[in-house]
């Protein structure tokens, strides 16, 4: 059996982007997909939150089962830097990779993108910073969520009824004013509005403009993005669950507003993911 081991890093939007690419790559190259989200922000891993509706579409093995393979040490690995380190998070194997941007990922993983020249390697490791969202709905419809997430989504949708949504990330506050947010709210004062954000100050500002602002996220530190929150495993689990629930509520709304491209030097990949999944 041949494996494609995808190593997640960075924010949730980036990780889903890379997973989407790896998912289709595994199908196209007839490899078994293994997902390692074991770094600090997702220390409980992918399988704590997701499973596959139809695992026959993409052959899949949980990272725990993969690492327990009796023959693991005998299998050939590419890139070779991961020999003997398959159990380590990417940022422990290559601590400075994210500082080098796309060039650093390309140097290590460019041949892993197609696997065309690696037919003899048993395990190919792949990661990147961001790979876009081409065919994201094909992968997403094959994902199912853990019971905790599914239950929360049902509960919150009943509270929201018909609603519009907006995603405002911490960086949006840092880089510019929020006139585009307030304009959206003022144009929808007759609607329920779900505000997906990783910064609690955004909610306070929005609730000062409109009485029907909804959000169900648990915040642990004021004016600090959720994924940078210093916390224990239990709190991290709450943050991760809220991150996924937020995404589902955003793309299931009647209309989703995200940061205008012209206002920022770069877009939130989480915003773009939300928009890409809209019906």
Key traits:
37% helix, 279 residues, 2 domains, Rossmann fold, 11 helices, alpha/beta, four-stranded parallel sheet
CATH 2nd-level architecture of the largest domain: 3-Layer(aba) Sandwich
Judging from the principal axes of the Cα atoms, what is the shape? elongated
CATH topology of the largest domain: Rossmann fold
The chain-level mean pLDDT equals 90
Give a count of the beta strands, DSSP E runs of length 2 or more.
Answer: 11
Strand content: 5-15%
Structural class computed from helices and strand pairing: alpha/beta
Number of domains as seen in the coordinates: 2
What is the percent of helical residues? 25-40%
Which CATH first-tier class of the largest domain would you pick? Answer: Alpha Beta
Q: Main β-sheet, in a few words?
A: 5 strands, parallel
Number of helices: 11
Question: Looking across the biggest beta sheet, what order are the strands in?
Answer: 4-2-1-6-5
Poorly predicted segments: none
How far the N terminus sits from the C terminus, by CA atoms, comes to 37 Å
Radius of gyration: 20 Å
List the secondary-structure elements in sequence, H or E.
Answer: EHEEEHEHHEHEHEHHEHEHEH
Task: Describe, in plain words, how this protein is organized in 3D.
With 279 residues, this protein is of the alpha/beta class. The protein has 2 domains: 3-139, 3-Layer(aba) Sandwich (Rossmann fold); 147-276, 3-Layer(aba) Sandwich (Rossmann fold), CATH 3.40.50.11350. Helices cover 37% and strands 14% of the residues. It has helices at 12-29, 63-67, 90-93, 101-109, 136-140, 147-160, 170-175, 179-186, 200-207, 233-251, 269-276; strands at 3-7, 32-36, 50-52, 60-61, 77-78, 123-126, 143-145, 163-168, 192-197, 213-214, 256-257. The strands form 3 sheets. It has a 5-stranded parallel sheet. It has a 4-stranded parallel sheet with strand order 10-9-8-11, with helices on both faces. A two-stranded antiparallel ribbon has the order 3-7. β1 (3-7), α1 and β2 (32-36) form a beta-alpha-beta unit. It is elongated and about 60 Å long. The two termini are 37 Å apart. The mean pLDDT is 90.
